[in-house]
Amino acid sequence: MSVRKPFPDVLAGIADVDGWLTDEQARRLHERAWELQEGAQIVEIGSFRGRSLIVLASAAPAGVRIVSIDPHGGGDRGPQEIAPDQHLGDADHAAFTANLQQAGVAERVTHIRKMSADALGDVDSDIDLLYIDGAHRFGPARRDIVDWGDRVPDGGTMLIHDSFSSIGVTLALLSATFVTGRWRYTGRSGSLAEYRREPMSVAGSALNFLRQGLQLGWFVRNVIIKGALTLKLYPLTRIFGHKTRDWPY
Length: 249
Ligand SMILES: C[S@@+](CC[C@H](N)C(=O)[O-])C[C@H]1O[C@@H](n2cnc3c(N)ncnc32)[C@H](O)[C@@H]1O
What we know:
This protein has helices at residues 7-13, 23-34, 51-59, 86-103, 138-148, 167-175, 202-213, 216-230, 234-239; strands at residues 41-45, 65-69, 109-112, 129-132, 157-160, 183-189, 192-197.
């Protein structure tokens, strides 16, 4: 069973695992999982074929509970893959199981094959590290941040993929983390934003609002790139420093 595996080994181990996670983002997940204490709990919403989950589970110390929530229904699967497709979902589930086994973390992980909104009652106790990468539409993304984020105690961490990149996720942030005064924005690796749960003063909340607001320039850039990719205006994406034909994340 893999426990506290160094980052270079983990990165090499996910090289062939499909998914959406850059090396820089993997490093941030690895660091946050590594520093947890025995008895802590990690919950990941949206595991797909296991790429990010393997990083979290390989970095966490022994005695950390690791829960993955993903219906593997083939819906909200990736960029522009919104409609459910059970055939694809079953293929994702089979790849997920095999990838976790291959990485030596299968027995560390409890997989709940449900939509996140239906799984709230399946997870006991506090969540020390919450990673959200499930449905990216505004409604479900906001519910994940608010309902699951509520389970994170002071001092805990929430990481959200596709922040300031997906329109749905960014609107969810605007209506939740920008204004609550409970989630301190601590930075991002590409679209992987990190928040620390802690009470803030009015001045602290205003500064927190501003720090998140400063990321909206990068959001506008990403929306332009996605529009240009959709219209096949590739020279325009290169002006913005985006050299591949994948959607930015
Ligand atoms: C972008 S992928 C996750 C990528 C993954 N974190 C990785 O590192 O490759 C989104 C995943 O969220 C799952 N999903 C979609 N809607 C969901 C929901 N309501 N609750 C939980 N998972 C959901 C999809 O089945 C899909 O596997």
